[in-house]
Amino acid sequence: MKTAGLIIVILAGAILLYATQDFPPWGAPDSPASTHVSPRYLQKSMEETAVPNVVTSVLADYRGFDTMFETSVIFCAGIGCFALLRIFRKKPEDRYYRHIATEITLHIKGGRIPEKSSEFERIDALWTPYDLIIKTVCRILVPFIQLFALYVIAHGHHSPGGGFQGGVILGASMILIAISYNMRTAIARISEKTDNLLMATGVFIYAGIGTLCLILGANFLDYSGLSTILFSGPIMARSHGIFGVEIGVGITVMAVMISIYNNLASEGKQDEGL
Amino acid sequence: MSDLIPIIVAKYNYWLYIVLMMIGLYAMIAKNNLIKKLVGMNIFQTSIILFYVSMGCKRGGAGIPIIQHGPDAGHHVIDLANYVNPLPHVLMLTAIVVSVSTFGVAVALAIRIYQRYKTLEEDEILARLRSK
Predict the structure, then answer these.
(1) Could you give the 3-state DSSP secondary structure of residue A95?
(2) CATH number, residue B55
(3) B21 part of a folded domain
(4) Is the pLDDT of residue B75 over 70?
(5) How far apart are CA A259 and CA B86, in angstroms?
(6) Can you give the residue range of the structural domain that contains B124?
(7) B21, B12, B83, B84: which is closest to B49 by C-alpha?
């Protein structure tokens, strides 16, 4: 297998290296990739959408249909992880509780789930004492990370950023809570049900804005149709439509990142892990 | 040999991406461990992302594709040489996030395989499948 693989790889690599002869030189301004449709985007983006960041305007407006299905792919990946891993256990399993004042650990096998109390806290099976520095630093940092994520989503029109990037940062902030405290703390902030609903909400916002354009008499995802309900010209309506779509993308990406992490780290129990 | 050097210098970026891509392909074919195969898949994807981003590059002082504009938006002459090609960036922006999500699904499958066969080595899984 190893030698066969090596032969295949060397053959494929040699063919590809031979094919680079026909490629344009690196960084040539007149290469085919930079001459057909990209000058149109660069020249007309400000005129047609009032968005200086061409990447955002191409992502959400010119190629909006493509991005809608990319968002659906991410949504499907989140649902796929959920369907593959999630286990709903009926019978209670082994649990560990720690008496906060005396630091005595109790191991409860089966039986009823004890009620919540202020003296005992539930701990993971592989529990190690919390590191005060990590806990405190993460607790202080998380709001700033989330604020930055919202800035990245909202300022994607004028600076590098947008829904995908901001959504990933938002998801990372919740994963940071799950790592520095434990998974139950993170799930208490955003429950599994909320998270799964948010996954669908983002795609719904995206497709909903597209359908709204259709209802208002324009093409699907042609945001200039929104000008009648946004009380602005068609060009500013495109800018606002792009913003709405980016919010939808951000919500989906955030929820999917959290859902994938929770399912992977806890092997689908969403109970304890990492 | 003297003819070859200018060809390599003009296009060495493509050569690097092809080498990277072949490393990933080799890992996907030859490695026995499923997680190592996934790492190979990620190297493969990264080489394609680098390839696309380098296609958008323009030599001679081109900056990021954000149009510099004054207060009266849209009434400027836009010099194409000042902005890199935005299209590869758009395509790769979505590809990165999609690759993370698909990697999540792949790891989920690997976890299910591990729960069932208690191993991630391909030959041991195949031996267990045949013995049934």
Answers:
(1) strand
(2) 1.10.287.3510
(3) yes
(4) no
(5) 31
(6) 4-59+85-131
(7) B21
Write down the ipTM of this complex: 0.88
Scanning A216-233, the segments in alpha helix (DSSP H) are: 227-230
**A239: chain B residues, CB-CB within 8 Å:** none
Q: Are A9 and B26 in contact (CB under 8 A)?
A: yes
Contact B47, A35 (CB under 8 A): no
Q: Looking at the partner chain, which of A12, A23, A162 has a beta carbon nearest the beta carbon of B25?
A: A12
A98 pairs with which residues across the strands? A105, A121
CA distance B33 to chain A (A): 13
Separation of alpha carbons A168 and A241, rounded Å: 21
Q: Does B40 touch chain A (CB under 8 A)?
A: no
Which residue of chain A is at minimal alpha-carbon distance from B106? A81
Q: Does B75 map to a domain?
A: no
Cβ separation A58–B59 shorter than 8 A? no
- Count of domains forming chain B: 1
What are the pLDDT tens digits along chain A (274 aa)?
789 999 999 999 999 989 888 888 888 888 888 888 888 898 888 888 888 999 999 999 999 999 999 999 999 999 999 999 998 876 667 788 888 888 888 888 876 766 777 788 888 877 777 788 999 999 999 999 999 999 999 999 999 988 999 999 999 999 999 988 888 889 999 999 999 999 999 999 999 999 999 999 889 989 998 998 988 888 999 999 999 999 999 999 999 999 999 999 988 888 777 6
Cα separation, B121 vs B103, in Å, equals 18
B17 lies in some domain: yes
Contacts of B131 (CB under 8 A, 6+ apart): none
Q: Measured between alpha carbons, how far is residue B62 from residues A179, B56, B65, B69, B102 in Å? A: 41, 10, 9, 16, 33
From the CA atom positions of chain B, what is the Rg in Å? Answer: 22
